[in-house]
Amino acid sequence: MLKNTLKSCMEGNTLSEKQAEEVMNEIMNGHATSSQIASLLTLLRFRGETVDEMTGFARSMRAHSLQIETDDLSVVDTCGTGGDDLKTFNVSTACAIVLSGLGVAVAKHGNRAVSSKSGSADVLEELQIPIQHNQQEARQSLIDVKLCFLFAPLYHQSMKHAVAPRKEIGFRTIFNLLGPLTNPANAKHQLIGVYDRAFAKKMAETISRLGTERTLLVTGGEGLDELSITTESFVIEVNGTTQNMYTIAPEDVGLNRGKLEEIQVNTPAESATLIRKILKGEANASATGIVLLNTAAALYAAKRVPSIQEGVIKVQEAIQSGQIYRHYLTLQEARQHA
After folding, report:
1. Could you report the per-residue pLDDT of 232-259, keeping only the tens digit for each?
2. What is the pLDDT of residue 114?
3. For residues 276-301, average pLDDT
4. Strands (E), the chain
5. In the chain, which residues fall in CATH 1.20.970.10?
6. From residue 22, how far is each of 57, 61, 179 by CA, in Å?
7. Residue 110 is assigned to a ligand binding site
8. Tens of pLDDT along 193-211?
């Protein structure tokens, strides 16, 4: 099947949603060789992935992943694409901790460092917060402390067949875009950082087809896969099947613009140190500001606040009161008792 697919793609054809799902099923079931997978990923990246292809691939990946039962919990995820090469600390992971401290259930989907200095799993280890759960432990953690970490290789075991070719070709592929769209807890509220506006538009259409209540896809003006504290950011807000595009700047929500160098790190340990300072209310204004901004956006995506600006105020008050740092200590205690 893959040979015919590759030939068709070489001739300039694209895959329908159904064809894409069948192709990904072949990959997930181990029926494609490493050469075929690498060739397909290269062809798609070279000509540009379509929304049909992304949707079909995502449906297959979801069907092959382990799932977390969340019952009536309104679950949020802050997983992004990575790949912005700007060496920033783990903003989305810090936001996940803050959100859970505000009582929002967060199923943080993530991995170790691939294209960044520090992956979410790496920094959580440095912060001494549990990073790996089986499905039952993940569900219980969501109930007990409002946060679980869904380590991607654990929940997407069928992806093992694509690991070697992805590593060998070395450039970003469609899989970078699919990760945030395949949360094992089926999060219906998301803040997705995307390093490129064009990809954000494709992902917005894809997640609209897959189903969401409210998702914000955000791209910093400097190519950051977060809402930027240093410049304006591009936002696509998806409410069900409706999309709305706009820009947002820090001053629009009562924050001052910051400096990129104040949010950059070189190691997971440096990232963890900065995050601890933010949680304590002792970090520089740029680092604190970017967490306030992105956490507020996630609160808005979760429909916990009527606007991002009101979210900023709520998050700021929670950090300054010590509520968030106390919650962080509770997360560490949960590790010790595991």
Report:
1. 999 999 999 999 999 999 999 999 999 9
2. 58
3. 98
4. 76-77, 106-110, 147-151, 189-193, 214-220, 233-239, 242-248
5. 1-64
6. 8, 11, 18
7. yes
8. 999 999 999 999 999 999 9
- To the question of whether residue 115 is assigned a binding role by annotation, the answer is yes
Q: Tell whether 80 is in a known binding site.
A: yes
Class of domain 1-64: mainly alpha
Is the model's pLDDT at 333 over the cut of 90?
Answer: no
Number of helices (H) and strands (E) in the chain: give both, helices first.
15, 7
52 is in an annotated binding site: no
From the list 237, 236, 193, the residue with the least C-alpha distance to 213 is: 237
Q: Is 84 annotated as ligand-binding?
A: yes
Q: Please, is 317 exposed, middle or buried when counting C-beta atoms within 10 Å of its C-beta (0-12, 13-18, 19+)?
A: exposed
Task: Find out whether 311 is annotated in a ligand binding site.
Answer: no
Is residue 241 part of an annotated ligand binding site? no
Q: Among candidates 64, 62, 22, 23, which has minimal Cα distance to 41?
A: 23
pLDDT tier, 71 (very low <50, low <70, confident <90, very high otherwise): confident
**Phi first, then psi: what are they for 177, rounded to 5°?**
-85, -25
83 is in an annotated binding site: yes
Q: What is the pLDDT of residues 19-59, one digit of tens each?
A: 999 999 999 999 999 999 999 999 999 999 999 999 999 99
Q: Answer yes or no: is 71 a known binding residue.
A: no
The annotation status of 91 as a binding-site residue, yes or no, is: yes
Q: 93 labelled as ligand-binding?
A: yes
134 is in an annotated binding site: no
**Which of 3.40.718.10, 2.130.10.10, 3.30.420.40, 3.40.1030.10 would CATH assign to domain 76-333?**
3.40.1030.10
Predicted local confidence at residue 131, as pLDDT: 78
